[in-house]
Amino acid sequence: MATLYFLLCAILILQVGRACDVHAEEDLHTGDFLVKNYEMIPEVWNAHRYHPIRPLLSDYNNLYESRTPFTRPPLDVINPFKKYLFKSDAEEENTQAENRFILGLFNNRFPSANTWRPLANLPNRFPISYNPNFNNPYTPGSCMSPSGESGICTPGSVCSLFGGRPRSSCSFGKVCCINSITSCSGTVTLNNTYWQSPSTGVSAPSTCVLKVRPVANKVVEPLQKPICQIRLDFVSFTTAQPAAGTCTDTFTVTGTTTIAPTICGENGGQHMYLDVPSSSLTPTDVQLIFNFVPGMATRSWNIKIALLPCGATYLAPADCLQYFTAASGRVKSFNWQDVAGTATRQLNNQNYNICFRTELVSSQRATQMCLSICAVANGGDAFSITTPTGTDAATAAAAVVTATTNLANARTTLTNAQATLATAQTTLANAQTALTTAQETVTTTQATLTAAQNALVTAQAAVPVAEAALTTAQGALTNAQTTLTTAQGTLTAAQAALVTAQTDLATANAAVVDPANPTAVETAAIAAAQAVVDAAQIVVNDAQAAVTTAETAANTAQTDVNNAQTALTNAQTAVTDAQTTVDTAQIAAVNAQTAATDAQTAVDTAQTDVNNAQVAVTDAQTAVTTAQAALTAAQIAAANAVASAAALSGVGTSAIVNGVNTATCLYDFLLIAGARDSTNVEADRYCGNALNPATTPVATSVPVCISVKPFKMTYRTDGTEGAVAAGVNVLPAPADSGNVGFCLDYQEK
Ligand SMILES: *[C@@H]1O[C@H](CO)[C@@H](O)[C@H](O)[C@H]1NC(C)=O
């Protein structure tokens, strides 16, 4: 192999005009060598205090164990990048890079695109790009494309010769060469290779396996640093969603000492740090394995694979699958997304640590770290770990809202129906009153009519009587007048006899010769004549008296006739008046009857309305009763759901739910040791629907802070979203559904 190495060196010299450093291996176990040749570039934060310019380390195993930056001696050299300013260092890097270049060139087990070995430190005395957000950006010769891909500065011809993609430009006329592999097989030995899904798409079922070989072959590549850790950056990652939390499409990793969880779904932006056995001692192939089940699904990925040298300051601490090196940021469970819906996105069988480097905050090392749930914009749920299926609190709460609305509506309907009934009853009462009045009017008018009719009959009866009286009076008058005429004839005859007698008397008197001494005869004759006159006078007087009596009788009879005539006229007038009264009463009676009929109709109509309103009220009351029962049931369900959810949102590992001792936060939980809320309520385990250490029912999340360092969380889920049956030493737990995991913003303070 040594021969081969020299041969390769010779070729390399022809290609790029650089010498191979065959002596580098001799210095392999010295700290100086590591610093000078193996890019132990301190990451920026630690550099200011813990620059490992003289690591007190004797071998790679110790390097691995001692990588936690806090154990390192303080730094007294301010410029950590100083070594790169010296020509001799730069030339050593060139040499190292060139050796790798040869490895890539001749390692033709792989397609050229896969074996392109970015020339990690081709001559560049200064970094080409520096991105403070990128993990360990300061790698001499490394560069970043405008789209954020990591690459290596090489001459353009070299990049295209080995299948790299030139992107933007480096200094000294070089290009930023991006290395990628897009097949479902192959082996990666080159740092910062991008594994991308085949552009032709992924067939299903199928398996895509990429081997990662952290090579430390001292013969072929003597300056290859031993690799202790692999960092996977999921630039993009989409596979089928899990079924009830269990991945059907799977992404698994083998060959690492870190047990990576099986993941699937949406994981763009996520990363994994994977410890590997030091490649200098027990080189092991690491396999990245996609297994796709039959069925339609979007499947694409772009995974950056970084090989991290043992002893680097930027390695993740032991057993930290995820490692965050900024003072604030966002940490999400795998497959968490800000999307609406009730699909289960939480993955089963997760069991890993998430670690946070202690950062400088305002020039002081952070003393605590606070966590709060992410704000969501698209209807996502920032925290749900273990949500009981049958008593989903959110669903139950929604049912309560609906039932409350229904009850309110039913009550409104009842109120309206009752108002309608009251109105109808008032109308009925009024109509009944009107009917009574109308009926009374009918009675009254009827009585008036009868009375008038009786009066008419009476008046009519008086007319013949008056007529008879008149006839009688007229007969009496006629008789009285006849008597008067007779008496007046008698008087006239008596008066004539008197005149005759008086004439005879005068004659007798005249016949006396000597009026002084009437003779006897003469006296006798005068006396006789006188007697006749006296007698005639008596007759006249009697006749006169008879005439007077007859006249009086005639006058009386005349008065009677007049009176009878008046009485008849009065009787006839009374008949006429009575008839008028009868006619008027008759009209009033008819009108009253019509009014009574109308009133009866109104009563009937009002009664119908009352009956209908009564039915409506009864129906509305039934509806209210039903709605009330539904609300009560919904409230009970909600209370149970809240109780269950609360029992599952707390600190404990068991709670009495519906009388059964039930596991809570025992199978799926986020462990944040010593986390406290603002009121110093403390809990280690978090699950349920809220990030909250409260032991009472809660539905809201609160920020929690920890001061236990190093800052760390553990995420653990069991293998099922189904119920866990009670068993020996097994607490039962209800089934879950709709869990999505967590999204938390962290902030060191
Ligand atoms: C691989 O690249 C990263 C930068 O992405 C760098 O920090 C690391 O040192 C490189 N690994 C090796 C073995 O050079």
From TrEMBL:
Pfam families: CUB_animal. Residues 1-19 form the signal peptide. Residues 317-446, 645-748 form the CUB domain. Keywords: Coiled coil, Signal. Gene3D superfamilies: Helix Hairpins. It comes from the Eukaryota. Residues 407-441 form a coiled coil. The keyword Coiled coil applies. InterPro entries: CUB_metazoa (IPR058698). PANTHER family: CUB DOMAIN-CONTAINING PROTEIN, INTRAFLAGELLAR TRANSPORT PROTEIN 122 FAMILY PROTEIN-RELATED. This is CUB domain-containing protein. It comes from Daphnia pulex (Water flea). The lineage of its organism: Eukaryota, Metazoa, Ecdysozoa, Arthropoda, Crustacea.
